[in-house]
Design a protein that fits this description.
heterodimer; A: 111 residues; seven-stranded antiparallel β-sheet; 7 strands; B: Jelly Rolls; nine-stranded antiparallel β-sheet; eight-stranded antiparallel β-sheet; 2 helices
Chain lengths: 111, 312
């Protein structure tokens, strides 16, 4: 039986500006999907782009290279990552006029 | 019985849970708010939000300089963590300043008097900033406010919480003493930091309800008699030592029995457990808990290697 675990990094939280998610230790897993559920979106031309970041200590971060597309609609979006060591998080950039996103960001890991 | 198991643990007759986290999460998860609000399953309104509490992780205890510490039973432990945010001790806990692990099972045997929680654990603070003073300015021991072990229970007509916490630090000052769950608030409103109409009930969820005072007193906990004890906190935040804890209660008499930490046992025999009326739908509930709270704007971590819950 393969080990799978889903964990919320951000839960029903409102974001108006750039942010990094809470991080997660994923060393046991070989596959990761970040699910980004946009529960609500406000403002004009509001969009979000998320960069995957990795770390050797959970405090110092560097871009892994994977980036989401432009997220500008409510609903479910995702980012796949395959090679990441232990620590993972998303660095999210929000743009638009008076933007606001209500988000559920879940990390889904599988070994 | 396996020699390693019987050497590390002292279980009662019936073992309900034996979880080694090197094997996985074993059904432990973070505590979450109830999402019942119309129309979008939002969080139930309340004075204290739990949706910022971090998810549990299977941790290799990886640090910047030594790399991976591993666990006592292998490479992985279950990590309970906080976000890097705290209010002062005497204020209501900041969203994200607590983390709590829970496993949800239920009783299956009516012959039960004693209930016991055993764990091997370690704890540390994030080695983020060099902001201390004195001989060891990079040591963040005093950033860890408290951590503990216990239960949320409902059986034989009552809901009740029982458990012990190690009060490590209050507003940066080390306290190093054990306390047990017992509420002293006047009523439900007092329990909810003076808020009337909040949904909480005196005695329920003492980890985040109950007023706190700058000297370390807490309306949800009382001091263990002669309960001062210095646990192992090594010379740097990235050195972990695995430690043993055991909490024994009497569910028939609704009393504490004893607390063991390392090689020291504290007698709790005259201490009652506070109970309230049953809640709907959860008769027989047996939820073991482990939690940690930060004392400053720094993440802190409780690592659980293995847990045994037993009854007799």
């Amino acid at each position: 039986m393969r080990l799978f675990n889903a964990a919320p990094l951000e839960l029903k939280k409102y974001f108006k500006e750039d942010f990094t998610t809470n991080h997660y230790e994923a060393g046991w897993a070989s596959e990761c999907i970040f699910f980004i559920m946009v529960e609500d979106i406000k403002g004009t031309g509001s969009s979000l782009i998320a960069d995957v970041e990795i770390s050797h200590d959970g405090m110092t971060w560097v871009k892994e290279g994977t980036q989401s597309g432009k997220i500008d609609k409510a609903g479910l979006h995702f980012i796949r990552v395959k090679h990441f060591g232990n620590w993972l998080r998303l660095n999210c950039h929000i743009s638009g006029e008076s933007p606001e996103f209500k988000l559920l960001i879940q990390i889904a890991l599988k070994e | 019985m396996d020699l390693t198991f019987s050497s590390r643990f002292q279980p009662l007759d019936k073992i309900l849970i034996y979880d080694v986290f090197n094997n996985g999460y074993n059904g432990w998860m973070e505590i979450m708010p109830n999402f019942n609000e119309h129309p979008f399953f939002d969080e139930q309104p309340g004075i204290l939000s739990k949706h910022q509490w971090p998810s549990l992780m299977l941790s290799t205890a990886t640090f910047r300089y030594p790399g991976s510490h591993g666990s006592m039973s292998g490479q992985y432990s279950l990590k309970v963590s906080t976000r890097p945010i705290a209010n002062r001790y005497e204020e209501m806990p900041a969203p994200g300043s607590l983390g709590q692990a829970i496993k949800r099972i239920s009783f299956h045997n009516k012959k039960r008097k004693y209930l016991q929680f055993e764990a091997w654990f370690s704890y540390t603070a994030e080695q983020d900033k060099m902001d201390g003073t004195g001989d060891l300015p990079g040591l963040h021991e005093s950033s860890i406010r408290a951590f503990g072990f216990g239960w949320d229970l409902q059986e034989r007509g009552n809901r009740y919480f029982a458990g012990a916490r190690y009060l490590n630090s209050v507003n940066g000052e080390l306290k190093n003493k054990w306390q047990i769950v017992y509420p002293s608030s006047k009523d439900d409103e007092d329990w909810a930091f003076g808020t009337s109409g909040d949904w909480c009930v005196k005695g329920i969820d003492p980890f985040w309800y109950g007023r706190r005072y700058p000297d370390g007193r807490h309306d949800g906990f009382i001091d263990v008699k002669d309960g001062h004890q210095k646990l192992v906190y090594n010379e740097t935040d990235c050195k972990l030592n695995w430690q043993y804890v055991r909490v024994l209660i009497d569910t028939e008499e609704r009393k504490y029995v004893e607390l063991q930490s390392g090689d020291t046992t504290f007698d709790l025999k005259d201490q009652p457990i506070y109970t309230v009326d049953s809640y709907a739908r959860i008769d027989g509930l047996m939820n073991p808990l482990a939690w940690i709270e930060t004392d400053t704007n720094r993440r802190v971590f409780l690592f659980l290697d293995s847990i045994v819950i037993s009854q007799q």
